[in-house]
Write a structure and sequence with these properties.
The complex is a heterodimer of chains A (390) and B (242). With 390 residues, chain A is mainly alpha-helical. Chain A has 16 helices and four strands. The two termini of chain B are 29 Å apart. The chains are: A mainly alpha (390), B alpha/beta (242).
């Protein structure tokens, strides 16, 4: 154990001597949280602002006095759309435009099918609230006119609507925030990768490239002690960077909480502690995996390439989960990264964290980390690794 | 004392070393001489337990390297073919790291570094990061690192490679002092002059085999040549630098 400590301390000291890299990683991790939250908060408050003031753009309002009348009664601000509305929608200046054709009023009076066009570009997510708003207003107008006509003929309007849908949004405000704060778990998972990388590579491929591995291994110390000490150093570095990154989020969340988005940014000290408890075992696994991969690299750069593939795979997991719409299932807890992601999201949603969901990812990560470190110890006895220099 | 007994090493289909036997006694300088590719480095790697022999065995002070490699490593100070330093650490930190790995206490390391610094003329370099060191300076730090635990057996793989005349001379002086201290010194070289100047005992290897063993005089006699250089060329089939 004494030798493990010697190796650990040397690796940490060596890494800290590389001031520029250490500083860059640290600054990047401090800044990540506040920067992300500011951007997210601005985005979200923008959405809410857009959706809360009812405003509709009309082209050809003069052809639809009934619609205009309805909108005025609904307290909707009506704006005349400019001539080149189509181009502007495409560019993103306008979000949705209701276009009324010339014959609308006559057809509407004659009880013929009266058409309007809703022009929008749904590739822009930020305009979706405005699009939905216009759609709803048009539906409401449609429904009102139908009611009035049916009533005029002595028919009950409910005949026309066999199922009445009432919208009840089940998400509590805090849960709505967690959907957007998919980003915090994402950073919580990527931070240890960033934090452990430099050290994991330098301690393995770096030793090979420098030609310091052979003299190092000539010391009367088992390769297991070397692998273990180096891994502890990489893990420590990964943990520190992850803890600092997440602390940045807490700081930003508390600064923001009062003013703008109290419901959105529920990321306080209790959540922080749970996050760290989930991320530390993950960091054990990622730094061990990085070390194992780097050991195959003959040079720092070569190892860096291999390790960046790992980062790509890991960062894909949250995206796959998000886009595949995978439902939570118990087996997911046993998949590294995915298990942590699920647990982190539960914490953010304010759901309870059952023991299985908390402990299974940690246990799997620890087991994989130990296996990876044992493999590194074995590779350090491999002639091709020890002597195989570029 | 280091003894190689029928050492063999095969890499795939290549037989790098085929039955090398010799003994390097304490208080003597033993030179492993041979052309490039003769199997010198592979032999030394097997002695420092970093390579497992495919045949034969290594005995260091009576310990079989295959049975207790850590004990053998503890008794050897080896300057290997690769001699990279940690560039961000100072010379002192580089040396101290190896001392700590060998289980030495802080005080013992301090004393050892002071002794080695005097011995290798390292003084002014000690507290500078090794990043900007010249090749000779690096070599001195690497040697100090290998000798920090004052080992009874010293293995040096081509120690003078790439060194200038002055550094080579001070290195030779250092080797003589190690002999005087009663150490077993084993070093390899492909330079005849160097071996002739330093060694009490010469082991000539060629194509993975020992082709001659003995004092410089005995070698001359065996080759039937009064000239040592001529003897080397004959015994190794050429390829040794004069």
């Amino acid at each position: 154990m004494g030798r493990v400590l010697v190796v650990f301390l040397k690796e940490v000291r060596d890494a800290l001597r590389d001031r520029r890299t250490a500083l860059m990683v640290l600054v990047a991790s401090v800044v990540t949280g506040p920067l992300t939250l500011v951007l997210v908060a601005q985005f979200v408050s923008g959405l809410e602002e857009r959706a809360s003031t009812l405003k509709v753009r009309l082209a050809g309002a003069q052809h639809a006095p009934a619609l205009v009348n309805f909108l005025r009664r609904a307290d909707v601000e009506i704006e005349e759309a400019p001539e080149d509305y189509a181009a502007r929608v495409k560019k993103g200046d306008l979000e949705a435009v209701i276009v009324v054709p010339r014959d609308f009023h006559e057809r509407w009076l004659d009880h013929e099918e009266a058409r309007v066009e809703l022009v929008f570009d749904d590739s822009r997510t930020e305009s979706s609230p405005a699009i939905r708003q216009s759609e709803r207003l048009l539906e409401a107008f449609n429904r009102e006119s139908a009611y009035l006509r049916l009533m005029a003929r002595g028919v009950s309007p409910s005949l026309n609507e066999t199922v009445k849908v009432e919208r009840v949004n089940a998400a509590t405000p805090r849960q709505r925030g967690a959907v957007l704060l998919f980003l915090i778990p994402m950073f919580a998972i990527l931070a240890p990768l960033l934090g452990g990388m430099t050290l994991a590579i330098d301690a393995t491929a770096g030793e090979r490239e420098r030609g310091s591995l052979e003299p190092l291994l000539a010391n009367p110390v088992s390769t297991a002690a070397f692998a273990f000490g180096k891994w502890l150093a990489a893990w420590a570095s990964a943990t520190v960077v992850a803890a600092v990154t997440l602390a940045g989020f807490v700081l930003a969340a508390t600064l923001y909480a009062e003013k703008k988005l109290p419901a959105l940014l529920q990321f306080g000290v209790p959540e922080y502690l749970r996050f760290v408890a989930i991320v530390v075992p993950l960091a054990a696994f990622t730094s061990a995996a990085q070390m194992l991969i780097s050991t195959y690299g003959r040079t720092y750069r070569e190892a860096q390439t291999y390790v960046s593939y790992l980062a790509t795979v890991v960062s894909f997991i949250p995206l796959v989960v998000m886009f595949s719409g995978a439902r939570e299932a118990p087996w997911q807890a046993a998949v590294p990264v995915l298990g942590q992601l699920m647990a982190l999201q539960r914490v953010l949603r304010g759901d309870g964290l059952p023991a299985w969901d908390a402990l299974a990812p940690a246990a799997v990560s620890a087991a994989l980390a130990i296996a990876a470190v044992a493999l590194v110890a074995r590779l350090l006895r491999d002639e091709r690794i020890v002597f195989g220099r570029s | 004392m280091i003894a190689a007994e029928g050492l063999a090493k095969r890499f795939g289909t290549v037989e790098a070393v085929r039955g090398v036997s010799f003994t390097a006694p304490d208080g003597r300088v033993t030179g492993l001489l041979g052309p490039n590719g003769a199997g010198k480095t592979t032999t030394l790697r097997m002695i420092s337990t970093l390579l497992a022999p495919s045949g034969g065995r290594v005995m260091v002070d009576g310990i079989d390297a295959a049975h207790d490699p850590l004990a053998v490593r503890a008794g050897i100070g080896a300057l290997s073919d690769a001699r990279g330093l940690y560039a961000r650490l100072t010379a002192r930190e580089n040396i101290a790291y190896f001392g700590e790995l060998r289980g030495m206490g802080r005080a013992a390391i301090g004393e050892s570094i002071a002794r080695l610094a005097a011995f290798l003329e390292l003084g002014p370099l000690l507290d500078r990061p090794t990043d900007g060191f010249s090749q000779g300076e690096r070599m001195k730090v690497a040697i100090a690192r290998a000798l920090v635990h004052d080992p009874p057996n010293v293995v040096l793989d081509e120690p003078t490679n790439g060194l200038d005349v002055m550094t080579t001379r001070s290195l030779r002086e250092a080797v003589r002092q190690l002999r005087q201290a009663g150490k077993c010194v084993l070093f390899s070289s492909h330079v005849m002059q160097e071996v002739a100047a330093l060694c009490d005992e010469i082991v000539i290897v060629s194509h993975g085999r020992v082709v001659a063993v003995g004092t410089p005089e005995a070698i001359r006699a065996a080759a039937g040549s009064a000239d040592l250089e001529e003897a080397f060329v004959r015994l190794t089939g050429g390829g040794v630098e004069a």
